[in-house]
Structures are given as structure tokens and as C-alpha cells.
Amino acid sequence: MEVGAVANLRRIKNAIGVARAVMEHTDHSFLVGESASMFAENMGFIAEDLTTDKSLNIFSQWLKGNCQPNYRKNVTPDPSKYCGPYKPSTTMKQNRRAQRFNVHSHDTIGMIAVDQAGRVAAGTSTNGLNHKVPGRVGDSPIAGAGAYADSNAGGAAATGDGDVIMRFLPSYLAVELMRAGADPSTACKMAISRIKRHYSEFFGAIICANTTGHYGAACNKVPGLSQFHYMVSEPQSDTPLLKSVDCF
Predict the structure, then answer these.
(1) Is the pLDDT of residue 157 over 90?
(2) In this structure, what is the dihedral angle of CA atoms 120, 148, 213, 114, given to the nearest 10 degrees?
(3) Is 108 one of the catalytic residues?
(4) 215-219 vs 120-125, strand pairing mode
(5) Burial level of 202, CB count in 10 A (0-12/13-18/19+)?
């Protein structure tokens, strides 16, 4: 059971490579911020400007649109109408969680690998949620949330609204369900169902695989997400297969 993770990494493109370096070259599990970036450079990763014309244009349009969305609440000025800087509001409103997620709002990649000996590894990498509050960390680097693996049971990886997903550790739950005998599809569906009981409209999906190479997936059905697609690569085929599952 080895783990490596980084978050709030700057200037380094290969974030998951740095996470692996944390696992292989430190006794720690998680490094964040500028210190993580410095660690990456010390490990030989190239620092570069990751800004692109596209990202600059997106940011410019966001500013012109009064910084919408910005994921703030209970602050002044009104975050639904104005950019910051923000200060705490004198009144607290218990608003229902806003549904701002869509299938194009993030870029998470999650993978599970099972070798011939049945050893399991899982990992996720993401740029995070567009227009997030600076410093925000989602589910991807959190062991048990974004991904989890145990060579005695299987592996899982999740994607979607990380601020909700990390509250339920669905990847950990799915692996434990497979350990208890559930098949991957059932484990995935049960992990999603647990979140649905509290956040019925959350945006999210999970993939699962056990030590014998059986796999499955599940997703929560919301506007814009009625089916989840994922890729499977098996020894008996040279071509990865595109699979899909209907959300529920």
C-alpha cells in the first residue's frame, strides 16, 4: 500500500509523475503548493510557463462576465454579480448547493491497472475545476476519493464534482465492497448510490476493476450526463475498447 500525491502544483506539466516521485523518493504521501513544485524541480521535472492563448482568453472572458462562476458564498460583494475581493458577509444563508458542474468543466483522467500477477495500481490527474477558488484541492489527489487500489481486492477511480466526491471516499468504498465479494459493476453502483442519498443531483462517475481483471462503471444521471464512456485495454486485444454505462 504505497501512495504519492501532489496538489496546487505550479509550472510542472507532469503532475502525476511528480506524485509518483513523492511515493518512490520520500516517506510522505502528499506534497502541496510551491514546496511541491520545488520538490518536482529537484527531482528533474522541467519548470515551464503553462499559460496558453486559450487559457488567457478563457480567463479574460470570465473577468468580463463578472467572474461567473466563482464558487463563493456568504460573502460581499454579491459573488453572483461581482468580482472580488470578497469579505465575509454578516449573514449566513443556508442555500442549496449550486449545480454548476457540466461534462466540460474539468479534465480528470483516472486509470486502473492490473498486471499478470494481479497487482493493482490506480491514479488520477487533473487540472481541477475551471474558475475554482485559488488554493482549492478536489478529490483527485485524495487517496480513497479520486482513486484507491489494493492488490488483495481491486482498484477504483472517480471523476466529477470533487468537492462532493471527497466527502464520501467512493473509490475506497468500491474497493472494500469488492473485497467483500461484490462484482465491479455492483461496487461502482453502490458507491455512487451512497453519494446520491445526500446529493441527488451531483455530477460524478466511477470505474472499478478487481484482481481478476473484471471491470465495471457507474454514474449519476443528471442533465448532460446520461451515459458514461470509458476505455478498456485487455491482453487478448491490441486495440483499446470503448465501453459505456447508462447512468442511473
Answers:
(1) yes
(2) -30
(3) yes
(4) unpaired
(5) buried
Q: What is the pLDDT of residue 106?
A: 59
Grid cell listed for 57? 482568453
Nearest to 69 by CA among 92, 95, 107, 99: 99
- 208 pLDDT exceeds 60? yes
Q: Which of 108, 124, 126, 159 is catalytic?
A: 108
d(CA 202, CA 14): 29
Contacts of 53 (CB under 8 A, 6+ apart): none
pLDDT digits (tens, 9 = 90+) for 62-79: 999 999 999 999 999 999
pTM over 0.90: yes
Cell 520545488, residue located: 38
Spatial CA neighbour of 157 closest among 126, 197, 132: 126
